[in-house]
Amino acid sequence: MSIIRLYIKDLFKFSGWLLPLNLFGMVIASLLEGIGILMLIPMISVSGVITGKESNFFAPYLGFVDIFPEGSELFFLLCLFILIMIAQSLLQRGIAILNVKLLHEFSRDLRIKLFRETLRSDWSFFIRKRKSDLINSLTSELARVISGINLVLQLITSIVFTLIQVILAFWLSASITGFVLLCGAVMILFSKKFINRARKVGNKTSLFGQEYLAGMSDQFNGIKDIKSNTLENSQLSWFSSLTHKMVGEQIEYVKLQSNSELYYKITSSVFIAIIIYFSITAFQAQFEQLLAIILIFSRLWPRFTGIQSTIQNIASTIPAFESVHHLYKECLSSSELRDYQDDGIEPYKLKSSIVSNNICFKYKNSGSNDVLKSINAKIRANQMTAIVGSSGAGKSTFIDILMGLMKPDHGELLIDGGPLNDERLTAWRKSISYVPQDSFLFNASIRENLTMVHPNAKEPDLWQALKFSSAAEFVRKLPEGLDTHIGDRGVRLSGGERQRLVLARAILRNPSILVLDEATSALDSENERKIQEALEGLKGKMTIIVIAHRLSTIRNADQVIVLEEGRIVQAGGFHELASQKSGQFGRLLGNQLEAIQ
Ligand SMILES: Nc1ncnc2c1ncn2[C@@H]1O[C@H](COP(=O)(O)OP(=O)(O)OP(=O)(O)O)[C@@H](O)[C@H]1O
After folding, report:
1. Which candidate among 188, 275, 467, 473 keeps its CA 20 to 30 Å from the CA of 150?
2. Each residue of 355-395: pLDDT tens digit?
3. Which parts of the chain sit beneath pLDDT 50?
4. What is the CATH number of domain 2-333?
5. How many angstroms does the Cα of residue 17 sit away from the middle of ligand 1?
6. Localized where (predicted)?
7. Ligand 1 pocket by C-beta < 6 Å: which residues?
8. Which three-class secondary structure state does DSSP give residue 573?
9. Is the ipTM above a cut-off of 0.90?
10. Is the distance from CB of 343 to CB of 107 less than 8 angstroms?
11. Is 160 helix (H, G, I), strand (E, B) or coil?
12. Following CA atoms 4, 10, 11, 15 in sequence, which dihedral angle do they give, to the nearest 10 degrees?
């Protein structure tokens, strides 16, 4: 429960004076409710059902009836009762609305905080995490946390109401109320096991939720493979077995709830029987006292059981609180932009060079050797540098370090002579446009996909960028041109068209550094040639870093860096390296020429 205390503290901090005001309103509302109930006594007394004024038990509470005119006490008492109940209901309504408002605003704040910290986390965090787990935490688990907070608010309300009722009940009969409280304490003692089991079921809910979402996103990401390899049945059997387990978990929860209800009902009836028995035999209670016992019991007991089952429901949300809190903490410790606001920071303009000074890097989750081993390289501003090497050589890892997505374990990255530290990171990132092989497009129009990086871009700017990436022609031919919707991840376009569109988007940002990671791999040779020419035109204005397996793509590169097993084995001009037939680059080039012939 300590995790919930943490969130409630936050809620108090967030609400300012609103929550204390609400609590005060609750005290008044429950006082009014208690008074309304207590008014039953004079009403019954005045109606003549019992001879209250003569009764020893009720006599002290009936004096005020004398202020009403003789003969119309009942009428005035009923009017007073209605007024009190109306005031109580209005107050309760106000409290409920305020509670909901508070809950939703606090939830929104929680969502924003978690999403912001997730976005601020560094690249290694995203490498470690399963995307579906992040989505699960930010959607289902967060929703469970919010419902848990709602339950806590309900619990606070119930406790306040109950306390006031207890005070009023004590005033009416201390001995009977004491006995009821004792019964309540005994019940709470035995209900601990229900709370623990609710927490365990809650754990299962979290795990199944995570598994469900992870499975679904894998299925739909790989739907083409599933369909083309007729894997539908095996996927369906996975789904059927998981949903079977989920049904079991739901039934377990309902069983737990009904068991605890059964327990409360049986103990209630046993306690009521004991109280009535002892009231009559031991305390020799009169009819009015019995009425008071029933009145107090019928008011307090449902509150006890209500509190009990709310605590049980809260316990089942604890795993969600823990998972969201754990994610939040993890994001904070992986935050790369903690103290540096994004707003107003201008992109960095590279002037002379990027230098990799003895850089070593190893992925934390892999027990293997360094992926990058003492990388020393210089990338000159406004030139085209190509990074080549066989698969797994470390090209993408090196690029990630150049972009400041990951920090080297040893060595440093110097930008125009100065180290790339946290303070320069945002400006550095803003200066880069990165185009990966599996580039991302949103399920929106072409125009929206382009303007997301440059909201103020005018129509001619969009066409210029499209022309650069040889995409203008095919966009013009689309039925709705720039306003054509391209489907999920651009599914309505071909692979090459998607790449050209992403390239246009990258250029639209007018970056200081353009990074292309296998960005033209899906293009036909005609379009590839056009893009090469366009890139050639950018030389002198922009620093271009290209990773390419197809070596014909980098023919115009000013410098080629050849990586092999995490080391630089060659570096120099394209033609210079191509002429060294025994070198690694010469071999790679030779292999490709052979494949063409
Ligand atoms: N997230 C990761 N966790 C652990 N190891 C990784 C991770 N990403 C890459 N690696 C390992 O690091 C090495 C270099 O990978 P990298 O992606 O940088 O190579 P690459 O030269 O870009 O390969 P390719 O041309 O196939 O894209 C590989 O051995 C790979 O298995």
Report:
1. 188
2. 999 999 998 876 668 899 999 999 999 999 999 988 888 99
3. 52-54
4. 1.20.1560.10
5. 54
6. Cell membrane
7. 127, 363, 365-366, 371, 389, 391-397
8. coil
9. yes
10. no
11. helix
12. 170
